[in-house]
Input
Amino acid sequence: MSLPRLRTFVEVYRLRSLSSAARSLNLTQSNVSQHIAGLEVALGRSLFERLARGVRPTLAADELAADLADHLDRAEEALAEARARSSELTGAVRILGHADFIGEVVTQHLPALVEAGIRIRLQPANRDVVQQMLIEGNFDLGVSAYPITDSRLRSEVIREEALRAVAAPAVAERILSASGLNEGLRREPVLSYSLDRPMVDTWLAGNNLGDLAASPAVTCPDLRVLRNLLAAGTGWSILPNYLCQREIEQGALAEIPAPNRGMSLSYSLVWLSTALRHPRVAHARQALLRGMRKR
Output
């Protein structure tokens, strides 16, 4: 079984499509079909069921993917890094993810990439859009604060951020002077990333405060908007430390102490392994991993 055939198998398995795998590998669909047929003959087992749209892996494909995928990924990442050290890095790298994290954290590590001749294209997006855009090949790297659910993607944690309950000092004082913290929080508007209040509910559950059963007064996927509203005296919220530490130190915001324990949020860099075939993408990935892990 040749390495090109195995690489083709892994790509079809991940993308669930012969045509998508062909585009990703820069092959014709006929070549991809021949690679898969050759593997099936060599194994004596069918690997994919052909559907009206795409393919469905068989049990034999699941077993082969479990044996192969990680080994091929590691080999491909090593080759990509070697190419990046010896290749011209000009071209664009497309990065998407949470707008506030890109704006406040990722941008600190971009000047070196620009100096190396790489053009950067940034786009705000939530986790589901990050996954979709990476798999479809529309972007090269993504950032997500929530676990990646698609097994076709690779990810590494780049930052752990403490979650802090914050409000303007006067609002925080009202909350803390109530008969109980639950009561104080219920009396004030809550601001959140989205209607399902992911960080708010994580902090409440971790501190045994239950569900406030309140719809957010304001939602916005760019947490800098919530931070500005909080500083202006509107409600309370949960923010990652990088968005509120300076404001707390300057007195624009006050922390509402966690009664039991602090909570944290993990940010990950995400990519599709085949994107690393481009030296500039491999170089950008390594630079961002090194830079954001250091802190």
